[in-house]
Amino acid sequence: MKNLQAGGFLFVGGAIIMTTTQFGKVVPMIGAACALLGVGMLIYYLFSNDGKY
Fold first, then answer.
1. 3-state helix vs strand vs coil in the chain, percent to 5
2. Nearest to 32, CA basis, from 3, 2, 11, 7
3. Segment 15-34, tens digit of pLDDT
4. What pTM did the predictor assign?
């Protein structure tokens, strides 16, 4: 359950950070990386056996 929550927070937080435009181009790229990592964790947890291999 912790992995599911962490993936959700990464995805939502990264998506929010990705929408910021006042800090240049580096911060939205970091947000995009966080969102991609979070979505990857969510998909992995969805198709794994309760987070196990």
1. 75, 5, 25
2. 11
3. 888 888 777 778 888 888 88
4. 0.74
